[in-house]
Amino acid sequence: SLRVAILISGSGSNMVSLVESMTGDHPARPVLVLSNVPGAGGLDKARARGVQTAVVDHRPHKGDREAFETELNTVLEEARPDIICHAGFMRILTPHYVDRWAGRMLNIHPSLLPKYPGLNTHARALEAGDSEAGCTVHEVTAELDAGPLLGQARVPVLPGDTPAQLAARVLKMEHKLYPAVLRRFAQGERAPIYMSQETAED
Ligand code: GAR
């Protein structure tokens, strides 16, 4: 089966949804969870699920993205991933990393790209008065939050929503969209899939 590495920086809830999806007849399996933040909550969650973990701290390489990415590439090369899922991995990447793994990297972003690349997506959607929000899974290319679309899920914006309330609604959909896209990607499928909260209710 295909080998999947998952890159995180924080709580790792998307990582958990990916790991827990890779059971039974799934065409892939998790071989590594890697964090650039030493104390990231997701590391314990990965270990608790029997997945090997690694930390590549970016801070000793302050201001030198290539040095950080050299170390990242070395650790990943040992894991020999066929697919790398970025799941709340909060580093800007350069061609030093992106070219090494071209065609194998997925990312989830909490907006309906091409709207709101970058940070604070939910506050920006509310500020703009949008009636819907959502999340996007795309292939990673050198341009931030801009690679080919693999999947998108929409949720309504409700009256009085705070950024935190909207983030929670979107995150639930992230946990459905990302595993669905990963399974298809592992099967060689590149056509995007679309979900909305109405069609994804459990
Ligand atoms: C998720 O909402 C993810 O879409 C977002 O960070 C959160 C990570 O949560 N990613 C980005 O903003 C990437 N720029 P998690 O650690 O619980 O999966």
From TrEMBL:
Residues that coordinate or bind N(1)-(5-phospho-beta-D-ribosyl)glycinamide: G12, S13, N14
Pfam families with a match to the protein in the record: Formyl_trans_N
Domain of life according to the entry: Bacteria
Pathway: Purine metabolism; IMP biosynthesis via de novo pathway; N(2)-formyl-N(1)-(5-phospho-D-ribosyl)glycinamide from N(1)-(5-phospho-D-ribosyl)glycinamide (10-formyl THF route): step 1/1
GO cellular component, one term: cytosol
SUPFAM superfamilies: Formyltransferase (SSF53328)
GO molecular function ontology, one term from the record: phosphoribosylglycinamide formyltransferase activity
Residues annotated as binding (6R)-10-formyltetrahydrofolate: R65, M90, R91, I92, L93, N107
UniProt keyword annotations, A-Z: Purine biosynthesis, Transferase
Marked site positions, Raises pKa of active site His: D145
Entries under InterPro entries matching the protein: Formyl_transf_N, Formyl_transf_N_sf, GART, GART_AS
BP terms from Gene Ontology: 'de novo' IMP biosynthetic process
Catalytic activity: N(1)-(5-phospho-beta-D-ribosyl)glycinamide + (6R)-10-formyltetrahydrofolate = N(2)-formyl-N(1)-(5-phospho-beta-D-ribosyl)glycinamide + (6S)-5,6,7,8-tetrahydrofolate + H(+)
Enzyme class: transferase
Cited CDD domains: FMT_core_GART
Domain Formyl transferase N-terminal as annotated: residue spans: 3-182
Function (record text): Catalyzes the transfer of a formyl group from 10-formyltetrahydrofolate to 5-phospho-ribosyl-glycinamide (GAR), producing 5-phospho-ribosyl-N-formylglycinamide (FGAR) and tetrahydrofolate.
PANTHER family given in the database record: PHOSPHORIBOSYLGLYCINAMIDE FORMYLTRANSFERASE (PTHR43369)
HAMAP family membership: PurN (MF_01930)
Protein family: Belongs to the GART family.
The name this protein goes by in its record: Phosphoribosylglycinamide formyltransferase
Originating species: Roseovarius faecimaris
Lineage: Bacteria, Pseudomonadati, Pseudomonadota, Alphaproteobacteria, Rhodobacterales
Gene behind the chain: purN
